[in-house]
TrEMBL record:
Region of interest: Regulatory domain: 441-559
Species per Swiss-Prot/TrEMBL record: Erythrobacter dokdonensis DSW-74
Binding positions (Mg(2+)): 42, 246, 248, 282
Quaternary assembly: Homodimer.
Gene name of this polypeptide: leuA
Family stated for the protein in its record: Belongs to the alpha-IPM synthase/homocitrate synthase family. LeuA type 2 subfamily.
Reaction equation(s) it catalyzes: 3-methyl-2-oxobutanoate + acetyl-CoA + H2O = (2S)-2-isopropylmalate + CoA + H(+)
Identification of the protein by name: 2-isopropylmalate synthase
InterPro entries recorded: 2-isopropylmalate_synth_dimer, AIPM/Hcit_synth_CS, Aldolase_TIM, IPM_Synthase, LeuA-like_post-cat, LeuA_allosteric_dom_sf, LeuA_N_DRE-TIM, PYR_CT
Length: 559
């Protein structure tokens, strides 16, 4: 097998930020930031087939419905599809009053003018200007000095200022991104941003948005937090700027970086639903928002029907949401493994007796119901599963609440089936296995209940009379006794030599209304020392318990 080569010559450690009195590690995120969705821009520029106007509109409507108030709707100078969508949306009058659209442009005069033109007639809009500032981009892409790169930003800002004046009916907001901020010298990013602010003259009442991207994530998230705190502390006229975060996920920590960035003093977060975006994607707004939610902070975004959100996102991006994606993935609330299932089942049982709302179900960081998910898929059964798993499935699917000791008995049947099939066992598999194991609602080979009647003698003794088919031949049986079960058991012993002693019995109601039935469970000891279980389900408890006796008798003679 080949080995990775020694990386030390090719790659260098990122190093540290000189901020010994950093404050962010001891801060909490106590309120939601301003959110900007860049699904229709950064997300759209990263997919194989960019969205057409129909898909963009559907995505836009979804974002509005979720409650996103700032939406980057595209890159108007990219081409006619983008321009026409944006100007069509503006002219449609369908942008709600509390939603502001944003467009992105390189710092090139013609592109900036095109961007303003696309927004003609907008009530309010954010024009977002960017140019890369870090050494690699300066040296390789622009082949420019620091001053020349700063001049690109200043020139772009001047065009923005002048264009805004040409369309006085729109409430313009300006955003500037020193692209590649996280790999640039911090003091240089501050210098460029301050120069842009000088041109655009923001005030605390009409601030500029300074968006600080980790264009390519290159360090651990604490470094990004240090960079944000440093920037916030050293930016002149800080109160006239909204500090915005725009992280990517190249190292898999885009959300973590944005969270620490908020602790470091930022006000706003840009990202995409389910983390779509260039390469490994942008910061995932769903994860960010629901992380806040699970800390008791209202994120201001509504994911209460997450499956509908996923459906639209998958349709528009033509990329599936991964089954393990935080909060949204199909498998993220599912436990296959025995000890997890056991803990989850106990967690739900504890919830029924708990008298406060606090969510404390082990292994589930959030109540799936809050996102519109049912509890059905919380536990699924395969060869890694334990008793809690099939007991949960039988309870949810059939309403059965097996006694703990019977679960242990049924466990070997389930384990054998899972090993034999080598796949997940669905609810039907488990129910079939249960019916076969305990001769429930099957046509058992030996004892079958044909008819059953119960009466009371004048002294109150119960009298049982009925017909049992034994190997297909009907036989009358009867018995007397205080306990119906022992009476039926006695009859079976006398008439057919079934050698069983009842050691435990339980019953519970099943279903409601016209579906109401009863389930009875019987633990018996056979003459040769084995433990044999029986289960009966019928319209009333008495018949269910008679069936439970026959179920145990069938097992006794079958094994
Ligand atoms: C990190 C990000 O996600 S940034 C957003 C990136 N998104 C997009 O680019 C999607 C839309 N873009 C496009 O459709 C095209 O890039 C267009 C139509 C806007 C422009 O296309 P082109 O004119 O062919 O230029 P292209 O994008 O290749 O840029 C190359 C030139 O612009 C310069 N440039 C790149 N970015 C910037 C910038 N932000 N500001 C100013 N100049 C820039 C480059 O240095 C290069 O200059 P050169 O030709 O003198 O070497
Ligand atoms: C334009 C900027 C904000 C960007 O998309 C990035 O740096 O990733």
């Amino acid at each position: 097998m080949s080995m990775l080569r020694d990386p030390s010559a090719k790659y260098r450690p990122f190093g540290q930020i000189n901020l010994p009195d950093r404050q962010w590690p001891s801060r909490l995120i106590e309120r939601a930031p301003r959110w900007l969705s860049t699904d229709l821009r950064d997300g759209n520029q990263s997919i194989i087939d960019p969205m057409d106007a129909v898909k963009k509109r559907r995505f836009f409507d979804l974002l509005v419905e979720i409650g996103v108030k700032e939406i980057e709707v595209g890159f108007p100078s990219a081409g006619a599809t983008e321009f026409d969508f944006i100007s069509g949306l503006v002219r449609s009058g369908d942008i709600p009053d509390d939603v502001t659209v944003q467009v992105l442009t390189q710092s090139r005069e013609d592109l900036i003018r095109t961007s303003f033109a696309s927004l003609e007639g907008a009530r309010a809009a954010i024009v977002h200007l960017y140019n890369a500032v870090s050494p690699a981009w300066r040296d390789i892409v622009f082949r420019m000095s620091k001053d020349e790169v700063k001049a690109i930003a200043i020139a772009g800002a001047k065009v923005m200022r002048d264009e805004a004046a040409r369309y006085p009916d729109t409430d313009w907001h300006f955003q500037y991104s020193p692209e590649t901020f996280s790999t640039a010298e911090l003091d240089f990013s501050i210098e460029v941003c301050a120069a842009v602010m000088e041109v655009l003259a923001p005030t605390p009442d009409h601030p500029i948005i300074l968006n600080l991207p980790a264009t390519v994530e290159a360090a651990t998230p604490n470094i990004y937090a240090d960079q944000i705190e440093y920037f916030c502390r050293h930016l002149p006229n800080r109160e006239s700027a909204v500090i915005s975060l725009h992280t990517h996920n190249d190292r898999g920590t885009g959300v973590a970086a944005a969270e620490l960035g908020l602790m470091a003093g930022a006000d706003r977060v840009e990202g995409c639903l389910f983390g779509n975006g260039e390469r490994t994607g942008n910061c995932c707004l769903v994860t960010m928002a629901l992380n806040l939610y699970t800390q008791g902070v209202d994120p201001g975004l509504d994911f209460s029907d997450i499956d509908r959100v996923i459906e639209t996102v998958e349709y528009c991006n033509d990329i599936p949401v991964h089954q393990r994606h935080p909060y949204g993935g199909e498998l993220v609330y599912t436990a296959f493994s025995g000890s997890h299932q056991d803990a989850i089942k106990k967690g739900f049982e504890a919830r029924e007796t708990q008298n406060d709302e606090q969510w404390r179900v082990p292994y589930l960081p959030i109540d799936p119901a809050d996102l519109g998910r049912s509890y059905e898929a919380v536990i699924r059964v395969n060869s890694q599963s334990g008793k809690g798993g099939f007991a949960w499935v039988l309870e949810k699917d059939q309403g059965l609440k097996l006694p703990k000791k019977m679960q242990a008995d049924f466990s070997r049947h389930v384990q054998a089936l899972a090993d034999e099939l080598g796949r997940e066992l669905n609810a039907a598999d488990i129910w079939d296995a249960f019916r076969r194991a305990y001769h429930v609602k099957t046509h058992p080979k030996h004892f079958q209940l044909v008819r059953y009647e119960e009466s009371r003698a004048s002294d109150g003794t119960r009298i049982f009379a009925g017909t049992i088919a034994v190997d297909g031949v009907e036989q009358s049986v009867s018995g007397r006794g205080n306990g119906l079960i022992s009476s039926v058991m006695g009859t079976l012993r006398e008439a057919f030599g079934v050698d069983l002693e009842v050691s435990d019995y339980s019953e519970h109601a099943l279903g409601q209304g016209t579906d109401a039935r009863a389930a009875a469970y019987l633990e018996c000891r056979s003459g040769d020392g084995r433990t044999i279980w029986g289960c009966g389900i019928d319209e009333d408890v008495a018949t269910a318990s008679v069936r439970a006796v026959l179920s145990a008798a069938n097992s006794a003679v079958a094994s």
